[in-house]
Batch of 2 targets.
Target 1
Amino acid sequence: MGFKDYCFRKSLWVFHFGGASCNNCDIEILDCLTPRHDLERFGILLVGSVRHADVLLVNGSINMRDKDRLLEIYNQAPKPILVVAIGACGCTGGIFAEGITFAGPVDKIIPVDAYIPGCPPKPEAIIAGIVKLAGRK
Amino acid sequence: MSKKTLIPVGPYHPLQEEPELFKLYCDGEIVKDIKWETGYNHRSIEKLSESKTYEQVFFLVERICGICSTSHPFAFANAVEEIVGVEITNRAKYIRSIIAELERIHSHLLWVGLAGHFLGYNTVFMWAWKYREPILDLFEMITGNRNSYAMFRVGGVRRDIENSKIQTIQKILSECRKKNDLLTGAVMDDPVIHARTKGVGILTKQDVLDYCAVGPTARASGVAIDIRKDDPYAAYPLVNWKVITAEAGDVFAKAEVRLLEMYESFSIIEQCLEGLKKEKEGDITVRITEIPEGVGHGRAEAPRGEVFHFVVSDGSNSPARHKIRAPSYVNIATFRKSCIGQTIADATITLAAVDPCYCCTERMASVYDMSSGERIMNANELINLSSSKTSELKKQMDRK
């Protein structure tokens, strides 16, 4: 087990970056933290600053105005950091990929470790994705 | 002269799910001025819509906003049906109203939770979101997805609610209603919530009329506007319900309006379910073969207020022009009345009280010449214009 995997074994702290999204993925991410799914039992916590985070969740299509800010936030993050692209828009741009303000899916801007597709992905899918990331060898 | 401090909230702030930037100019604790910057969520939806067929546009407008993912298709359907001049079947009307009212309940519960979170009451947040889950389960049962339901089409709905399912739906709803009683009681009787929200962020009746606010924001200040009553559509004229208003116009009144509106929604859904039993199963669409040339206006009451869609058809299979106005677009402007003069601590709940939805709101700003219809300049050019004017003025002053 390398150092990176060792760091990510337990208690992942998560920072949520909502790009130009339709809000569905945002509310499903919040939904993961509420009593039905309760991600905190895995030690997963939503934090206010990317400087405290182990995981950067990115959802929504990224438009021209978000692009530089996403890069800036990624640069501020402590490395190693896991980047997860959530939802159809995060993975590929989805229905907004042909838009005039679209600035490329997330993996064109920053390196992505995991993709969770769906419009929106169910909370179960989000949890499964993050747990797989945390437990990978 | 006093010094002003600038407190930026956003664009990526832990308090908000969505990206937007508020600049609070403060003198000590008091907010003196507020500015709002946008564009972080612009997805060029109106332009994309012109490249899609009418059937595809429904999937696009549904993704304007995940929380009001029925209101936008609803308004668009109303607009296109106005162009075609078609009357949909009663069963489709009932199903449309059921989905829209379920959405209102889930959206208001979501708001109550977030408002509790902003006040530092995480218990309210967890409770409200827990009680929201059965509603999402209902959605999954009826439409196949928790959000973005894809139920609407021109001339009706895509899926039927089978009569055999009605009993299960009624059972889940009556349980939700009991939970709602508990939550409403807890929120309305809590002395701390009273102390934090009463008299905070007051919007008078005149302010509402001046700023053209809509939805619960307006109804909390005693202005009884509701598209479901004022311009009836779908099954709303077929059922009994009343518009909830409050007089105070503060944050508490806005919460009260939303909490009580949920009961109206429960009652509308129950009446619609009874109505469904009388209609023939499977009679959900009217076949439409052609969309003629014309102009359509569609309005629908979203959980946050009036959604307006304007569609121009040139007789082809996709809209020639599609204009959208979301309720938050007008409601956000009321911050200038409700926030200025408050303390910073109260500003967050005042901002949240409107239930602003930025993904609905993001539109392009540009200037058009009214007579020729030509685009004169975009936002960037306007900024350049402004900065060049400043530099010119500077030069003139230097000469003096």
Note: The two ends of chain B are 27 Å apart (CA to CA).
Target 2
Amino acid sequence: MASSNVAGNVPAFLNQNPKDRVIVLGVPLPLLEKVGLYALLAAIVVLPMVYDGYDIYEFGKILMYMLAVLGLNLLTGFNGQFSLGHSAFFAVGAYSTAIMMDQLGMPYWTTIIPAAAVCFVAGFLFGLPALRLDGLFLALATFALAIATPQLLKYDGIAHLTGGVQGIVLDTPYPPAWVDGIVMSITGEELSVDRWKYMFTALVAVIMFAGAWNLVHSRTGRALIAIRDNPLSAKTMGINTSIFKSAAFGVSAMYTGVAGSLFAIMDEYLAPESFTFAEAIKFLVGGVVGGIASLFGAIFGGWFVLEIPNFADLVASSLENYINNPQGLTGLIYGLFLIFTVYVMPMGAAGLAQILVHKISTRR
Amino acid sequence: MDLFIEQTVSGLASGAIYACLALAVVMIYQAIDHFNFAQGEMAMFSTYIAWYLMDDAGLGLPFWIAFVVCIIVSFIGGAAIERIVFAPISDAPVLSHIIVFIALFSMFNSLAGFLFDFTPKQFETPFGHTALIDGVISAHRAGMVAVTLIMLAMIYAFFRYTPIGLAMRAAAAAPESARLVGIRVGFMLALGWGLAAAVGSVAGMLIAPITFLTPDMMLGTLLYGFAGAVVGGLTSPLGAVLGGFLVGILENWMGTFVVGSQLKLTVALVLIIVVLLVKPAGLLGRVVVKRV
């Protein structure tokens, strides 16, 4: 029981070989990963040169969801704690940014770090009682948190800050003059707000992703993973499980909260209805389908949760004569994919990729 | 004082609904050691089925026939979900179970909107809405309490006095020993799911005339159901019922006299966390001792 891994049991062969000895189609795996990583980075840089308007806004949204899912992955996949309530931390981040912009008149880009700090503290504090709750009960407590959040945001007592049911309309995040100047001198065109929003989101997302990468591959990251795999042994080895678990909750809330900040900045508007349990389900879907114990899985997950509603709309519009309520289709497809993932690929898309790599590399 | 009595009685009435859901949650918790996060959505979907059976655009059946048919359909549906979805992953880690519950949640929620559209629907009640006893309680709320109590008595009798009820209790308490004495544990699990779904459908049909029928109507209600189950003790069906009624009264008291109606769900959140931290066994639950 103690050794059972929340993220599904990792096939033994994945841990057999040291990574650098795995050869895929004649290329060592670490080199392949590095090439993949730089290709991804290059794609992130090239995208705004090619796309504009709604397309680039969508790509920004993918990166935003990637961050939110990453927060959940750090908590559930790497530390073994459940959360069905990450929509609450998403809301804390979004509202922190919105209130700082709206009430204090701070420029949008200065709100990210304070909002991250607020979310870290919120997550850390929620993580303290969570220490005493085992997996299932933590899921229940966070479920309650997710359901109570929209009502709490509408509360009259804080409506002068949150705008109550109406929400808050924010200023448009215009690009700084110097960025505009650089772009102008290179392309001769003015930088559109949509492109700038994407660039800003991408910058934050890449920095945060690199941070998560370093965290997971550090001493702290190994401690988190040890706590997930066997809390008792971890404690015996001298890891302060309480501090690490609460801190993991804090860091996780920080990632999802920064995603919330970016959400507020990108949409220039936020209201309590954006932070319902459905949002928490989205993060869970992204985490699980992408691979909950994987950083790259979060990228796939972010893309997945954003594309599925579009896909559902497409299906609905092609069946226009038979379907009256296409909004209903998205949740159905999310659910089907969740069950499919649990049955067929418990480690998500990232796990599937790992297995494929193994299959190819051991083929004689 | 009048307000106090009125709020207490109306709290008892909504407590009846929470008691039903809490009971359904505890039945599944005892059988498979998991919370059914989709319990509320299953109840909501059952209620849509009842609406379809009664509505003129549907089959146009009278209330009580639709009521019984809906319970039977929910029972079969619940048992089918256990057999089809949960039986294959009974050995999977906790996270897999939670994910599948959330998947069911999402699917039922959107399926209801998809099939029956998202506009709130009026759900008729056989009791009417006339006020009883100087306007302290409406006829429908009194009927809610009565139906709940009758159903709880029937479930108690079922578990206490019938051989199959005994077998179900055995299968939940000690699956391996039960299997050794010839009880089909898998079948009992399916029965338990069916019963839980049926109890949930009754809760849905009773609360729909008050809240109107929408895909999201059960979200807050389920939270109170969970709170009831936690307060009463997750290992005790009687505790769950008691907890449900207590939470119903507490909700109304807090809502009217302390925090106002806008923070009612937060009350449930705080209640769940505090009880889980301070007295995880609840009022009537067993203290579970885990071997390390």
Note: DSSP finds eleven helices and two strands in chain B.
